[in-house]
UniProtKB/TrEMBL annotation:
Pfam families: Glyco_hydro_cc (PF11790). Residues 1-19 form the signal peptide. Residues 30-261 form the Asl1-like glycosyl hydrolase catalytic domain. The keyword Signal applies. GO terms for biological process: fungal-type cell wall polysaccharide metabolic process. It comes from Celeribacter ethanolicus. This is Asl1-like glycosyl hydrolase catalytic domain-containing protein. The keyword Signal applies. InterPro entries: ASL1, Asl1_glyco_hydro_catalytic, GH.
Length: 279
């Protein structure tokens, strides 16, 4: 509701005043009500689903939060984008350097060969989002992809990155983002971030993730080269027999401590936008 009121009050203000940064990665919950949470979250500007189709919902309400499609792997390259709202941007190839279930498992050469098909969509296009350890350096997956893309004149409009902190150090996160920007010279979208060690998913609790989420969001809002960010994830995410305490809401949309901190951070962002518009 707060978001709707802000939009109504500010709809005639110049769009340059707004960062439009805050987003979320999410998928349908068992009651098909996740879209309701997305539409009601304060100052939430966009979401994505790791696929080219928007969030399905049994709710027929008018959609207002921007959907950003993703071509997750080679199997999605020719799929139709489905969105009730106009689409401006395309995300590409989720963790192509990884063979895990979430990864698209593509070689640099395969991704480069498929890239012209993504460019042909005519949308603003983000880089593949590789795992954190394969983002920086000439021999990393991302480094090799970007070198080949630039040598062939392929278009990459911004860098999509993932960052998972194992100690909750927000300054280290900021320094890493600055290094990515310095290396590739493009705007950055952080399409996944959280406080978690994937080799020990119980290493961080809800309170620690709540503190990290709020501080990291406010940090990224201050960095002009970070265009957008999306927490991982809105939904519960069972992993390796555990239940990482990173989700914002339960399957029945009850907020976790991380969800409360996320709303608080986004409410501060929304208030800041109002204050900027009034100056």
């Amino acid at each position: 509701m707060l978001k709707r009121l802000l939009l109504a009050a500010l709809m005639f203000m110049p769009t340059a005043l707004f960062a439009d940064k805050a987003g979320i990665g999410a998928w349908e919950n068992s009651n098909q009500t996740m879209l309701r949470w997305i539409e009601d979250a304060p100052a939430l500007d966009w979401y994505y689903t790791w696929r080219p189709t928007q969030m399905w919902s049994k709710d027929t309400r008018r959609r207002s939060v921007e959907f950003v499609p993703m071509i997750r792997d080679a199997g999605d390259v020719n799929k139709k984008i489905v969105s009730d709202l106009p689409v401006r941007t395309l995300l590409a190839f989720n963790e192509p350097d990884s063979r895990k279930s979430a990864g698209s498992n593509l070689s640099v050469e395969q991704a480069v060969a498929l890239w012209p098909k993504l460019e042909a969509r005519g949308l603003r296009l983000g880089s593949p989002a590789v795992t954190q350890g394969q983002t920086l350096g000439k021999t990393s997956w991302q480094g090799r992809f970007m070198a080949q893309a630039e040598a062939r004149g392929l278009r990459v409009d911004f860098m999509a990155v993932h960052y998972y902190s194992t100690n909750g150090d927000v300054k280290a996160f900021e320094n890493w983002l600055r290094a990515v920007h310095a290396e590739y010279g493009r705007p950055i979208w952080v399409t996944e971030f959280a406080y978690i060690d994937w080799f020990n998913v119980r290493s961080a609790n809800y309170a620690q993730n709540a503190a990290f989420a709020e501080a990291a969001i406010l940090m990224m809002e201050r960095l002009p080269f970070v265009e957008r960010h999306a927490w991982f994830a809105a939904n519960p995410y069972p992993y390796a027999g555990g239940a990482p305490q990173i989700n914002l809401v339960s399957n029945t949309l009850q907020p976790t401590p991380v969800g409360v901190a996320f709303d608080r951070a986004l409410s501060r962002i929304g208030a800041r936008r109002v204050a900027s518009a009034e100056e």
